[in-house]
Design a protein that fits this description.
4 copies of one chain form a homotetramer.
Chain A: E1 11-14, E2 17-20, E3 23-24, H1 25-28, H2 34-43, H3 49-61, H4 69-80, H5 85-93, H6 102-111, H7 117-126, H8 144-155, H9 161-177, H10 185-195, H11 203-224, H12 228-240
Antiparallel strand pairs in A: 1-2, 2-3
Amino acid sequence: MKRGKIRTKLAKVEADSIVVRGHDLAELIGTVSLGDMAFLELTGRLPSPGESAVFNALAVTLVEHGLTPSAIATRMTLLGAPESLQGAVAAGLLGLGSRFGGPVEDVARMLQSGEDAPRIVASYAERKAPIPGLGHPQHTEVDPRVSRLFAVASANGIRGAHTELMEAVAQEAERALSRRLPINATGAMGAIASDLGLRWQVCRGLAVMARAIGLVAHVQEELDDPVAPEIWRRVEDEARGL
Amino acid sequence: MKRGKIRTKLAKVEADSIVVRGHDLAELIGTVSLGDMAFLELTGRLPSPGESAVFNALAVTLVEHGLTPSAIATRMTLLGAPESLQGAVAAGLLGLGSRFGGPVEDVARMLQSGEDAPRIVASYAERKAPIPGLGHPQHTEVDPRVSRLFAVASANGIRGAHTELMEAVAQEAERALSRRLPINATGAMGAIASDLGLRWQVCRGLAVMARAIGLVAHVQEELDDPVAPEIWRRVEDEARGL
Amino acid sequence: MKRGKIRTKLAKVEADSIVVRGHDLAELIGTVSLGDMAFLELTGRLPSPGESAVFNALAVTLVEHGLTPSAIATRMTLLGAPESLQGAVAAGLLGLGSRFGGPVEDVARMLQSGEDAPRIVASYAERKAPIPGLGHPQHTEVDPRVSRLFAVASANGIRGAHTELMEAVAQEAERALSRRLPINATGAMGAIASDLGLRWQVCRGLAVMARAIGLVAHVQEELDDPVAPEIWRRVEDEARGL
Amino acid sequence: MKRGKIRTKLAKVEADSIVVRGHDLAELIGTVSLGDMAFLELTGRLPSPGESAVFNALAVTLVEHGLTPSAIATRMTLLGAPESLQGAVAAGLLGLGSRFGGPVEDVARMLQSGEDAPRIVASYAERKAPIPGLGHPQHTEVDPRVSRLFAVASANGIRGAHTELMEAVAQEAERALSRRLPINATGAMGAIASDLGLRWQVCRGLAVMARAIGLVAHVQEELDDPVAPEIWRRVEDEARGL
């Protein structure tokens, strides 16, 4: 059996230095922002100013959405293990699966598949599956994040082939299915992430890294002003028939 | 029993808008960086330019340290569940406890305790406990991250009472214990985070949010160029006596 | 630096056999129960019939307590990642920390400390800390699990020095604090686990292994008859002021 | 929008009693084993003696497989967070995904699909996908667990339609693909779990609940006789080119 070498291109750790993706960490400290560091980690190079603006915009979109199921899971976990911030955040992140977090990945995968819009729409229609990135259960009229994300991308010169394909898919789907199917926030993020050169396999990771920030904030708030005990009490009372 | 209200100050989610900490998310997108968004989440306000530079510097320091136990746990988890990026990242974050991640919290807690340097040093000496933030197992001579972090803080006007206390603790400890005990990276981070106004309870969260980024990058690399199967094979072969 | 060997006494894995703690797994299959297998894993030997009865009784006590914070976290996580049963169970287990799960460990640690009852009570009184295993927020009168656990232990000859110490601690505490402080379920479990020879460091593990079973059942029920969407909706509606 | 009730059939929690699946917990304590409690949780009724023997045999098979990727992840996590047994176990469980743990689910899903053997084999052949439960990378000749599991099931009267279908699938696959494709341990477990009436959706849960036990034992051993520091050192040394 072939034996592999154990190695990483992400960092070179020496006794007195750490080099991350070819950059001395001591030099990165104070010169690059957290978002640019994330771009460096994922792509192997620092972003251009335009790429930086758009990548940070994408990540910012995903940080905080209120008392989501992830935030509730984080707060419930903290109730039992208040000493373990990392456990509470990890519990919340575990909900970023196929329904939350996964959809951005689904959009990027579709747009990076090499298929054109008619074939994409036909393929989903055949399987009677909804096309990722189109329509929205709540924001039926207009989601202001979508126009904002596309405006930021355009203003920074990032609008590219994947965004055009997403738009073509939306038009083709509206034509084929005869109903309004606007690009939603997930669709915008998957298209723009693809235009930034991010591979679909890590697009779910955008949600994970951004939401980790938000969940730390939920831990802080729960420590000060807890809601988990009240949620638990109501759930248990109702389950008991009280 | 007193019944609580369920509420959060972090976000107000409406059908067509999300307001995060008083700021319309659509306006934050494209105007604030991911690091500044994290500062907003934790403190309730956007940072000044100096605060932004220093907060981002702190977070950047914690993103990537190579094949740490956390990164190994993430990669081992991906081997069994390659479909679950979020599970692999969560597994890695779970190691940011009292030995990794926790120490920054310990430093901040010590510096925010209201005690002065002699009392702090005496209290640790009494319990024969090592003082958090001093000394370093590997970088015995000099850790370039420390001077860099303090330089960035000073240049941005963030050097304050907690950094001064950390320095006083180091001097007092060297005097009392008669050996070199330089401030290490953990000590610098805990002091600077405290000078930024972050509460000790969330200082471990800095490591969690930063490392979440690094672990997504480890997932990406493991998908391309896996090392977990080789680590497993070697561990199992040795355990079998092969 | 001393280099260690990588090895485990838990299993010897060969191409055509697995030996667990000295027992051929193929022979264990069909001859030992799951609870006895757990005893073997933790202690290195199969239990006597009496030990088996008592160990299984302890574990059974911890499997299912309804819609606890752990169960809610599991169900919330499944809502976002329905494809990941293991992630949902892991999220629930993460709440078995210092408040849930940890207390059995605290009792066992106290009883295995080598101190006698007066010293134990004095030490908690000095720190104004509640004594683990005494009193109960809900079952103020009587918790039928307590008498049942002690009866099962006695009937199987497991009643020993730790249970006697727990009773002495309860008497001493009631005398010193002049109020009713009955041994609660946590106290009974920590005492009996100690009399079984389990080390305090893994007593939290009893809750973890037992509750993993219960959380799998919560996943199954949530897939059939979900409550997480309704909990989420109510939480979000109230947070919005609806 | 339809509003749901919050309820569970798993437990009824009152101030002085807990009823689990219709059985008073105080009565279950000391009368049922942990494995039978798991069967009760998953199916809603206590097992017959034969069902008990077979269900426990299945679970016992999955408890301990040595230094697997899950065990390594658990030990690596404990290195950073030694205070959090539950976090270390959760990290290990997160690897029970599509490659480990998932395959038993895949077998059960296939056998519960309502298709017959020729159609099952044809469907996998068409997709050029390997048939779950057949063949084995390591135990090429014979896996003693397989014959043992089938013998225990037969001896207890559990051999049923799913086991027969699994055998028919194996014969059909060997004929169609012209090579030896024996039923492996995963195949035996998926077939027997199906004959026990377990739904495919929770068959991964069998691995999760059983392995939680094994991972607690790995935590205990790692606390006494750690291997994680040595694994880390070797990985990091090699990555540095030392």
